[in-house]
Specification:
By secondary structure, the protein is an alpha+beta fold. 34% of the residues lie in helices and 26% in strands. The chain is globular, with a radius of gyration of 32 Å.
Length: 710
Amino acid sequence: MTARGDSSGPAPDATAQALTRATASAVEAVGGYAGGVYLRSRTEELLLATLLGLPGPLFKAWWRMQVNRPYPVAEAYRSGQAVHLPDAEAAMRRFPQLMAGLPFPFGSLFEPVTAGSERFGVLMVLRPATPGVPVGTADRERMREAAAALARELAALTAAGAPVLWEGDPVYVPPPEPAGGVRAAVDRLAQAVLSVDRQGRIRFANAAAATLLGIGEARLLGQVLWEAAPWLGNRAHEDHFRAVFLSGVAAHFPVRRGRHRPREWLSVDLYPGSDGLTVLIGSAEQPEYAPESVAQPGTGLGSVADRASALYRPVALAIALTEAVTARQVSAVVTEELLPAFGGRQLAIYMLDERHLYLAWETGFPRGFLDKFDGVSLDTELPGVQTLTSGRPLFFESMEKLAAAYPGISLDAHVGARAFLPLIASGRPVGSCILGFDAPRGFSPEERTVLTALAGLIAQALERAKRYDNEAARARGLQSALLPHRLPVREHVDTVARYLPGTVGMDVGGDWYDVIETDDGLLALIIGDVQGHGVAAAATMGQLRSAVRAFALSGSTPQEVMSGTNRLLIDLDPGQFASCCYVLFDPVSGDARAVRAGHPQPLLRHADGRTEVLDLAGGVVLGIDPEATYPVTELRLPPGSVFALYTDGLVEKPGTDIDVGVERLRAALASARPAPLTETADRLIAEAGGSTDRPDDIALLLASRTGGDP
């Protein structure tokens, strides 16, 4: 069963009922004024399933949440850990993108809803801010209990064959009915007085309010405030309403009423409470500032165009672009933030190389449609080219206008609109960006200005990413040259190694491995990890690999190899340190001596499949203490066993204890069926660390004893 939202009220199914109870219970338990539950969907998104205490249209931009975005809801879901933000300072420090869109003082609590390994979503409660006072233990426990109770109900539904997923709009949990006030007293006032619940619906109106709005009281009650008074739904005033609903601080502002009476100014006062708002509207003088600075009345907060998203997502885009490192990350950020902000469906980014434009990223276009435009020269008469060569954005309100301006151009659709933006950074051409829309639409002066400004930010981010990619390519080339191109082939033992560079926000790292044949017929197995990333880390890695090889070939004992390499790194003083594990192994007898310098413990899989994490004695990482000692551990590798050395990139993930990753790797090695060692290595990489987004490099070295003494 898939739960579906219904904005008219709670859905009758068991999932919606469980969500409604949990939301109301959690809000009451921790003294909140609003709350909700985000549930997972069929896509990589969390959807707001229930909402209590807030008018949904005001916060529509936050109904959908990408699980990989830096927001508290997403972090709680990804990490499985609660997120508690007592005030705006704590929220700004940890989640600046959230506060860019909601810059108001409020507290918030986010509790993951999980049952065992099953992740359903996140329970959220909003409440008044407590500056400098962290969320108390009792409230943390109440949130955990509420989330656990909800998880049990959802798990029971899943066990009964009804998987819990969400699609559609949130279900609104009815708020308590607010008190009406004293009728006789407020009806004598010349000001309009309205009581509005936390869903934005009018629950009380005095006589002056009915007269001002031109709607009888009976028809007025139950209407959404912005439907009854659309001039209050102007985007210039939305922040005031968000502020009072979230922070509990009163707001006062002037408003110009109606299109046909532009000189009629009113004063609006908003007084929030736990159960809603008191709205006072009276006459006002024209403000001293230029009246034309006030935006024209909009179409209301309930319009199809998500104006809250259009207002704040560009801000989030600007912040997210500063965090993007690679061209792929920049393009992904533009897709996630820019397209939804303006209702776009297609995006293409072209990068300039010499005098040709090459397609770097696309989404939403028919498969293969853009291939014919890849690699076009700068003298081609295409809008994506001419926007860059002229430096001017091009906006086409319909596909007919685009076809008329460029006769004969191939079109991917007959209905829609297009915007072509030049990507220019500090006067240097970088490329061009194409935004596609499914329906004809106009582009207001404000939208054109914002899109043009954002194109400049995108260009700067792409230029920075290009420099990063070039440096990363040089570093990878250096590291590839320094790593062994092949491993020795010896009787009685097979060795296989794997190396994968990190892909998320980092340059190539300093991971390395090696297998060395010594003069006395032994085999040295080495793996190490230099702290840091980039060319400097790769260079230090090369020096250490050469040093270990020189010590090993000179006949040094394992302890002497490690101590000598430690002193060498200190003498080089590169400002870096490194971990390392060195094992001197006799393929005939299976006897081995191992030393370890701050490196993860190796694994040993026996012939019967039993796999253990070895407990090797160790010393501090290399490059710290010139007097450090490295004790030797003696062990034996029996025939049919597999010995695994690895770097922490294979087992360490953000927000997860490294022991969990080691156990995951041990289980993967234990479950590996007898197979060629290359297949075992590929399986370990895929099962233990094969994510497409890796925060660190991965190195893996396997040695399998295939014969020799029993």
